[in-house]
Amino acid sequence: MYQRSGLQSLLRKSRALSLLPGDLAELEGSLPAIRGASFEAKGQVIPAVGPRRATVALLSGCVMPMVNGPQMSAAARVLARNGCDVAVPRGQVCCGAR
Question: CA 25 to CA 27: how far, in whole Å?
Fold first, then answer.
């Protein structure tokens, strides 16, 4: 919400981040850019295209669906087109990416 609302851009342009205590301004500068749509891990199975050769699980964790949503969607499509049923478990927790 911070990035998509435009607040991040506004704060960076105003130089208000320099008023933050400690290393908070530096930490804010290291935030990953969030682009594109999020990937939803809702317990779905993306069926293989053509004959099924394998079943794989696509784990998303808590951060990756927002930060790399388009890439996760692309990975699921590539796997499905290569004959994999792609199971996306619901209720995934942190993968340690934070």
Answer: 5
Residue-wise pLDDT tens digits, 48-61: 999 999 999 998 87
Kindly list the domain boundaries of the chain, sorted by start residue.
1-31, 36-98
Residue in 51, 54, 55, 72 with CA at minimum distance from that of residue 63: 72
Distance, CA of 27 to chain centre = 19
d(CA 47, CA 90): 16
Which of the 8 DSSP states describes residue 50?
S
**Among the listed residues 86, 92, 89, the one whose alpha carbon sits nearest the alpha carbon of residue 46:** 86
